[in-house]
Amino acid sequence: MTRRNEIQTWSRPFPPDRFYLKNKAQKLVRRYEGNPILTSGDVPYSSHTIFNGAVATFKGRTVLLFRNENEAGLSSLGLAWSDDGIHFEVERKPAMLPGNRSHLERWEQLGISDPRITKIGNTYYINYTGYSDLGVHPLLAKTHDFKTFKRITLLSLPDNRNVVLFPEKINGQYVRLDRPMAESHHGSNGIWISTSPDLIHWGNHDYIMGPRTCHWDCLKVGPGVPPIKTKKGWLEIYHGVRKFGAGHYRIGCVLLDLKHPAKVLGRAIPYILSPVQLYERVGDVGNVIFINGAVLESDNKTLRLYYAGADSCMCLAYANVGELVDLCLENPSAV
Ligand code: BMA
Protein backbone atom coordinates (compact mmCIF):
# COMPACT_ATOMS: atom_id res chain seq x y z
CA MET A 1 0.00 0.00 0.00
CA THR A 2 1.31 3.45 -0.79
CA ARG A 3 1.53 5.99 1.99
CA ARG A 4 -0.07 9.40 1.69
CA ASN A 5 3.22 11.30 1.76
CA GLU A 6 4.76 9.10 -0.88
CA ILE A 7 1.87 9.96 -3.16
CA GLN A 8 2.41 13.65 -2.47
CA THR A 9 6.12 13.48 -3.12
CA TRP A 10 6.53 10.93 -5.87
CA SER A 11 3.60 12.06 -7.96
CA ARG A 12 5.51 15.19 -8.89
CA PRO A 13 9.18 15.88 -9.66
CA PHE A 14 11.40 17.05 -6.84
CA PRO A 15 11.78 20.80 -6.81
CA PRO A 16 14.79 21.22 -9.15
CA ASP A 17 16.68 23.31 -6.58
CA ARG A 18 16.97 20.30 -4.34
CA PHE A 19 19.87 19.03 -6.45
CA TYR A 20 21.68 22.34 -6.65
CA LEU A 21 21.74 23.53 -3.06
CA LYS A 22 24.83 25.63 -2.50
CA ASN A 23 24.97 25.21 1.24
CA LYS A 24 23.41 28.67 1.53
CA ALA A 25 20.96 27.64 4.22
CA GLN A 26 23.79 26.57 6.49
CA LYS A 27 25.09 30.14 6.56
CA LEU A 28 21.79 31.62 7.67
CA VAL A 29 22.03 30.37 11.24
CA ARG A 30 25.10 31.31 13.29
CA ARG A 31 25.90 29.47 16.50
CA TYR A 32 26.92 31.47 19.56
CA GLU A 33 30.61 30.72 19.97
CA GLY A 34 30.28 30.17 23.73
CA ASN A 35 27.84 27.24 23.38
CA PRO A 36 26.51 25.45 25.31
CA ILE A 37 24.95 28.23 27.39
CA LEU A 38 23.45 25.99 30.10
CA THR A 39 24.10 22.43 31.31
CA SER A 40 23.07 20.25 34.24
CA GLY A 41 26.20 21.46 36.05
CA ASP A 42 24.51 24.88 36.39
CA VAL A 43 21.47 23.42 38.14
CA PRO A 44 21.46 23.60 41.98
CA TYR A 45 19.13 20.61 42.46
CA SER A 46 19.11 17.00 41.26
CA SER A 47 19.86 17.12 37.55
CA HIS A 48 21.09 14.43 35.23
CA THR A 49 20.52 16.48 32.08
CA ILE A 50 18.75 19.63 30.90
CA PHE A 51 17.37 20.36 27.43
CA ASN A 52 14.40 21.56 25.35
CA GLY A 53 13.95 24.99 26.92
CA ALA A 54 11.18 27.48 26.09
CA VAL A 55 11.91 31.21 26.21
CA ALA A 56 10.11 34.48 26.77
CA THR A 57 10.94 38.06 27.61
CA PHE A 58 9.64 39.18 31.02
CA LYS A 59 10.28 42.68 32.41
CA GLY A 60 13.27 43.12 30.10
CA ARG A 61 14.91 39.84 31.05
CA THR A 62 15.04 36.53 29.19
CA VAL A 63 13.43 33.63 30.99
CA LEU A 64 14.21 30.04 30.05
CA LEU A 65 11.88 27.22 31.12
CA PHE A 66 13.80 24.01 30.49
CA ARG A 67 13.29 20.27 30.85
CA ASN A 68 15.27 18.93 33.81
CA GLU A 69 15.66 15.19 34.06
CA ASN A 70 16.75 14.35 37.60
CA GLU A 71 18.98 11.52 38.72
CA ALA A 72 15.95 9.26 39.18
CA GLY A 73 15.03 9.83 35.52
CA LEU A 74 11.96 11.99 36.22
CA SER A 75 11.43 15.13 34.12
CA SER A 76 10.23 18.44 35.55
CA LEU A 77 10.57 22.05 34.40
CA GLY A 78 13.25 24.39 35.73
CA LEU A 79 13.62 28.15 35.36
CA ALA A 80 16.65 30.26 34.54
CA TRP A 81 16.99 34.04 34.10
CA SER A 82 19.31 36.19 32.01
CA ASP A 83 19.94 39.91 31.57
CA ASP A 84 21.70 39.54 28.21
CA GLY A 85 19.99 36.46 26.76
CA ILE A 86 23.27 34.53 26.93
CA HIS A 87 24.32 34.07 30.56
CA PHE A 88 21.66 32.37 32.66
CA GLU A 89 21.23 31.77 36.36
CA VAL A 90 19.03 28.86 37.45
CA GLU A 91 16.50 29.30 40.26
CA ARG A 92 17.07 27.29 43.45
CA LYS A 93 14.09 24.96 42.96
CA PRO A 94 12.25 23.51 39.92
CA ALA A 95 9.36 25.71 38.71
CA MET A 96 6.89 22.98 37.75
CA LEU A 97 6.92 19.48 39.19
CA PRO A 98 4.84 16.66 37.70
CA GLY A 99 1.42 16.37 39.26
CA ASN A 100 1.77 18.99 41.94
CA ARG A 101 -1.67 18.07 43.32
CA SER A 102 -3.50 19.70 40.41
CA HIS A 103 -6.57 18.40 38.59
CA LEU A 104 -4.23 17.39 35.75
CA GLU A 105 -2.06 15.20 37.97
CA ARG A 106 -3.36 12.03 36.29
CA TRP A 107 -1.70 13.03 33.00
CA GLU A 108 1.65 14.02 34.48
CA GLN A 109 2.42 11.11 36.80
CA LEU A 110 5.43 9.91 34.76
CA GLY A 111 6.93 13.37 34.20
CA ILE A 112 6.54 16.61 32.26
CA SER A 113 8.72 17.96 29.45
CA ASP A 114 9.23 20.03 26.32
CA PRO A 115 7.56 23.36 27.20
CA ARG A 116 6.75 26.24 24.86
CA ILE A 117 5.81 29.74 26.06
CA THR A 118 3.43 32.06 24.21
CA LYS A 119 2.52 35.50 25.49
CA ILE A 120 -1.05 36.49 24.63
CA GLY A 121 -2.04 39.83 26.15
CA ASN A 122 -0.53 39.88 29.63
CA THR A 123 -0.63 36.13 30.10
CA TYR A 124 2.21 33.72 29.47
CA TYR A 125 0.74 30.41 28.33
CA ILE A 126 2.82 27.30 28.79
CA ASN A 127 2.30 24.29 26.59
CA TYR A 128 4.05 21.20 27.84
CA THR A 129 3.99 17.42 27.53
CA GLY A 130 2.80 15.09 30.29
CA TYR A 131 3.51 11.38 30.43
CA SER A 132 1.23 8.82 32.05
CA ASP A 133 0.53 5.10 31.79
CA LEU A 134 -2.01 6.03 29.11
CA GLY A 135 0.43 7.81 26.82
CA VAL A 136 1.82 11.21 25.90
CA HIS A 137 -0.45 14.21 26.41
CA PRO A 138 -0.20 17.93 25.61
CA LEU A 139 -1.20 20.18 28.52
CA LEU A 140 -1.74 23.90 29.07
CA ALA A 141 -0.80 26.08 32.05
CA LYS A 142 -0.41 29.82 32.53
CA THR A 143 1.53 32.31 34.59
CA HIS A 144 1.66 36.07 35.01
CA ASP A 145 4.86 36.26 37.05
CA PHE A 146 6.84 33.01 36.57
CA LYS A 147 6.37 32.40 40.30
CA THR A 148 3.01 30.67 40.32
CA PHE A 149 1.81 28.41 37.52
CA LYS A 150 -1.84 27.55 37.10
CA ARG A 151 -2.74 24.34 35.28
CA ILE A 152 -5.57 24.92 32.78
CA THR A 153 -6.43 21.85 30.74
CA LEU A 154 -5.50 18.65 28.97
CA LEU A 155 -5.36 19.70 25.31
CA SER A 156 -5.89 16.45 23.46
CA LEU A 157 -6.21 12.69 23.54
CA PRO A 158 -2.96 10.70 23.53
CA ASP A 159 -0.61 10.43 21.71
CA ASN A 160 -0.01 14.03 20.81
CA ARG A 161 2.80 16.48 21.58
CA ASN A 162 4.66 19.62 20.48
CA VAL A 163 1.72 21.98 20.82
CA VAL A 164 2.57 25.62 20.02
CA LEU A 165 0.10 28.49 20.32
CA PHE A 166 0.00 31.44 17.93
CA PRO A 167 0.66 34.68 19.87
CA GLU A 168 -2.65 36.29 18.85
CA LYS A 169 -6.14 35.28 17.86
CA ILE A 170 -6.73 34.83 14.14
CA ASN A 171 -10.24 35.42 12.79
CA GLY A 172 -11.41 35.68 16.43
CA GLN A 173 -10.02 32.25 17.42
CA TYR A 174 -7.02 30.94 19.30
CA VAL A 175 -4.90 28.80 17.00
CA ARG A 176 -2.46 25.99 17.72
CA LEU A 177 -0.16 23.62 15.85
CA ASP A 178 0.59 20.12 17.10
CA ARG A 179 1.87 16.70 16.09
CA PRO A 180 -0.58 13.88 16.81
CA MET A 181 0.84 10.41 16.31
CA ALA A 182 -1.51 7.95 14.68
CA GLU A 183 -0.28 4.38 15.00
CA SER A 184 -2.52 3.19 12.19
CA HIS A 185 -1.15 5.55 9.54
CA HIS A 186 2.56 6.28 9.59
CA GLY A 187 2.10 9.05 7.07
CA SER A 188 0.36 11.16 9.69
CA ASN A 189 3.54 12.00 11.63
CA GLY A 190 2.99 15.58 10.52
CA ILE A 191 1.88 19.01 11.70
CA TRP A 192 -1.80 19.77 12.25
CA ILE A 193 -3.66 22.99 13.05
CA SER A 194 -6.74 23.54 15.26
CA THR A 195 -8.70 26.52 16.56
CA SER A 196 -10.55 27.33 19.77
CA PRO A 197 -12.75 30.13 21.13
CA ASP A 198 -11.42 29.69 24.70
CA LEU A 199 -8.24 27.54 24.68
CA ILE A 200 -10.28 24.65 26.15
CA HIS A 201 -12.54 23.46 23.33
CA TRP A 202 -10.67 22.73 20.10
CA GLY A 203 -11.93 21.98 16.59
CA ASN A 204 -11.54 22.80 12.88
CA HIS A 205 -8.63 20.34 12.75
CA ASP A 206 -6.67 20.42 9.53
CA TYR A 207 -3.46 18.85 8.26
CA ILE A 208 -0.69 21.26 7.29
CA MET A 209 2.35 19.26 6.25
CA GLY A 210 4.14 15.98 6.79
CA PRO A 211 7.47 14.23 6.42
CA ARG A 212 9.06 14.42 2.97
CA THR A 213 10.26 11.20 1.38
CA CYS A 214 14.03 11.12 0.81
CA HIS A 215 14.53 14.47 2.55
CA TRP A 216 16.20 15.28 5.87
CA ASP A 217 12.73 15.32 7.50
CA CYS A 218 11.49 12.01 6.04
CA LEU A 219 10.33 10.27 9.26
CA LYS A 220 8.40 12.89 11.24
CA VAL A 221 8.04 16.62 11.65
CA GLY A 222 6.79 18.57 14.66
CA PRO A 223 6.22 22.20 15.60
CA GLY A 224 9.22 23.82 17.30
CA VAL A 225 8.74 27.46 18.29
CA PRO A 226 5.47 29.39 18.70
CA PRO A 227 4.91 30.93 15.24
CA ILE A 228 6.65 34.27 14.64
CA LYS A 229 4.64 36.99 12.91
CA THR A 230 6.33 38.61 9.89
CA LYS A 231 4.95 40.86 7.15
CA LYS A 232 4.94 37.94 4.71
CA GLY A 233 3.44 35.28 6.95
CA TRP A 234 3.83 33.24 10.13
CA LEU A 235 7.33 31.79 10.33
CA GLU A 236 7.38 28.38 11.99
CA ILE A 237 10.68 26.74 12.87
CA TYR A 238 10.05 23.01 13.18
CA HIS A 239 12.02 19.86 13.87
CA GLY A 240 12.35 17.04 11.38
CA VAL A 241 13.70 13.56 11.87
CA ARG A 242 15.49 11.32 9.40
CA LYS A 243 14.51 7.69 9.16
CA PHE A 244 17.92 6.12 8.64
CA GLY A 245 21.26 5.86 10.41
CA ALA A 246 21.48 7.95 13.56
CA GLY A 247 17.97 9.33 12.88
CA HIS A 248 19.17 12.92 13.19
CA TYR A 249 16.85 15.59 14.62
CA ARG A 250 17.38 18.81 12.64
CA ILE A 251 15.43 22.04 12.27
CA GLY A 252 13.87 23.68 9.23
CA CYS A 253 11.34 26.41 8.52
CA VAL A 254 7.97 26.94 6.89
CA LEU A 255 5.88 30.05 6.23
CA LEU A 256 2.12 30.03 6.86
CA ASP A 257 -0.48 32.47 5.58
CA LEU A 258 -1.18 35.34 8.01
CA LYS A 259 -4.97 35.15 7.82
CA HIS A 260 -5.37 31.46 6.92
CA PRO A 261 -2.48 29.74 8.68
CA ALA A 262 -3.57 26.29 7.49
CA LYS A 263 -2.14 27.38 4.13
CA VAL A 264 1.59 26.86 3.52
CA LEU A 265 3.14 29.74 1.58
CA GLY A 266 6.55 28.14 1.36
CA ARG A 267 8.67 25.44 2.97
CA ALA A 268 12.45 25.58 2.92
CA ILE A 269 13.92 22.56 1.17
CA PRO A 270 17.14 22.26 3.20
CA TYR A 271 17.38 22.16 6.98
CA ILE A 272 18.73 25.30 8.65
CA LEU A 273 20.62 23.67 11.54
CA SER A 274 21.98 20.15 11.83
CA PRO A 275 24.02 18.44 14.57
CA VAL A 276 27.67 19.18 13.81
CA GLN A 277 29.32 20.35 17.01
CA LEU A 278 30.37 17.85 19.68
CA TYR A 279 27.69 19.15 22.07
CA GLU A 280 25.06 18.39 19.41
CA ARG A 281 26.49 15.03 18.36
CA VAL A 282 27.29 13.46 21.73
CA GLY A 283 25.01 13.30 24.75
CA ASP A 284 22.08 11.41 26.20
CA VAL A 285 20.58 11.18 22.72
CA GLY A 286 23.23 11.94 20.11
CA ASN A 287 22.76 13.84 16.85
CA VAL A 288 19.80 15.85 18.10
CA ILE A 289 18.95 19.50 17.64
CA PHE A 290 15.57 20.23 19.20
CA ILE A 291 14.07 23.72 19.36
CA ASN A 292 11.34 25.04 21.67
CA GLY A 293 11.78 28.80 21.62
CA ALA A 294 13.03 31.92 19.87
CA VAL A 295 13.13 35.60 20.75
CA LEU A 296 12.81 38.32 18.12
CA GLU A 297 15.02 41.22 19.16
CA SER A 298 13.78 44.82 19.19
CA ASP A 299 15.38 45.49 15.75
CA ASN A 300 12.62 43.15 14.43
CA LYS A 301 15.28 41.33 12.41
CA THR A 302 17.52 39.29 14.68
CA LEU A 303 16.17 36.02 15.98
CA ARG A 304 17.77 34.36 18.96
CA LEU A 305 17.17 30.63 18.61
CA TYR A 306 17.34 28.62 21.83
CA TYR A 307 17.85 24.95 21.07
CA ALA A 308 19.01 21.82 22.83
CA GLY A 309 22.04 19.79 21.80
CA ALA A 310 21.97 15.97 22.06
CA ASP A 311 19.26 16.10 24.78
CA SER A 312 22.06 17.29 27.09
CA CYS A 313 22.46 21.07 27.05
CA MET A 314 20.95 24.39 26.00
CA CYS A 315 22.53 26.32 23.13
CA LEU A 316 22.02 29.62 21.33
CA ALA A 317 22.15 30.61 17.66
CA TYR A 318 21.27 33.75 15.69
CA ALA A 319 19.40 34.20 12.41
CA ASN A 320 17.88 36.99 10.37
CA VAL A 321 14.12 36.51 10.28
CA GLY A 322 13.76 37.98 6.77
CA GLU A 323 16.36 35.59 5.37
CA LEU A 324 14.51 32.59 6.80
CA VAL A 325 11.24 33.87 5.33
CA ASP A 326 12.88 34.24 1.90
CA LEU A 327 14.33 30.74 2.15
CA CYS A 328 10.81 29.39 2.72
CA LEU A 329 9.43 31.34 -0.24
CA GLU A 330 12.04 29.82 -2.59
CA ASN A 331 9.87 26.68 -2.44
CA PRO A 332 6.24 27.83 -2.54
CA SER A 333 4.88 24.42 -1.66
CA ALA A 334 4.11 22.28 1.38
CA VAL A 335 6.45 19.51 0.16
C1 BMA B 1 11.35 13.44 21.26
C2 BMA B 1 11.10 13.98 22.66
C3 BMA B 1 12.06 15.10 22.95
C4 BMA B 1 13.51 14.71 22.65
C5 BMA B 1 13.59 14.15 21.24
C6 BMA B 1 15.00 13.69 20.87
O1 BMA B 1 10.56 12.30 21.00
O2 BMA B 1 11.29 12.95 23.61
O3 BMA B 1 11.96 15.46 24.32
O4 BMA B 1 14.34 15.84 22.75
O5 BMA B 1 12.70 13.05 21.11
O6 BMA B 1 15.45 12.67 21.71
Helix content: under 10%
Question: How does CATH name the architecture?
Answer: 5 Propeller
- The helix count comes to 3
User: How would you describe the shape?
Assistant: globular
User: According to CATH, what is the topology?
Assistant: Tachylectin-2, Chain A
Look at the structure and give the mean pLDDT: 92
Q: Supply the helix-strand structural class.
A: mainly beta
Report Rg: 19 Å
Query: How large a portion of the residues is in β-strands, by DSSP E?
Result: 35-45%
How many independent structural domains? 1
Distance between the termini: 21 Å
Which ions, cofactors or small ligands are bound in this entry? beta-D-mannopyranose
Return the string of H and E elements: HEEEEEEEEEEEEEEEEEEHEEEH
CATH level 4 superfamily: Glycosyl hydrolase domain, family 43
- Uncertain stretches of 5 or more adjacent residues: 1-13
Sheet bearing the most strands, described?
Answer: 5 strands, antiparallel
* Total beta strands: 21
CATH class: Mainly Beta
For the structure shown, list the relevant keywords.
335 residues, mainly beta, five-stranded antiparallel β-sheet, four-stranded antiparallel β-sheet, 6% helix, binds beta-D-mannopyranose
